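Re-running 60S ribosomal export protein NMD3 OB-fold domain-containing protein to confirm reproducibility after the cluster update. Everything else is unchanged from the original entry.
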Amino acid sequence: MEMDLITAASNNNGGGGGGVNFRQSQKHELADAYLVKSSEIGSSAHIHTRTHLGHLLHPGDLILCFDLSTANLNEPNWELYEQSHQGKIPDVIIVKKYYGDRAQRKRRRRWRLRRFLDENASQISTTNSNRMDDDYNEFMEDLEEDDIMRRYINIYKDKRKIESEMAIDNDDGDDVPEISLQEMLDDLNIGD
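Result of re-run:
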């Protein structure tokens, strides 16, 4: 389900409550979020939830969620769980921030990864090939969004895209995550 974020208020109080010491996550921030379904923008039907993605969310963002209030769950013990945890189960669980059109993100990507060619690549059907391409693009999007994951992967500059972008500066001003040029490696060719 798609939802628009109305407000997100951070709950980062800087320490443990009640004298309990705990290590705070550097990657997550607890926040209260007020949401509205994309199909119901303009109505006053706000949904409140808490999320660990407070550091990523801003008012007006599009996010992907699980709507537990209208979900048809096929779990035989769900009703018992719901009764025993009354008032503690959220109506909506925020899964991830939606950054927009995948094709546009792919066009703006100024980097590439090196891949080993599979010897059996010619035997792969077009359906499996399309699925593998989709998985590869999802992996590249995950790399853009997660700087910790990027640390362990060599990312190379795509000189063709960098040169073409120098001529046309198409910065849309949105907050789509990008990999900086400082993080990219120059391509090394043995024949040079």
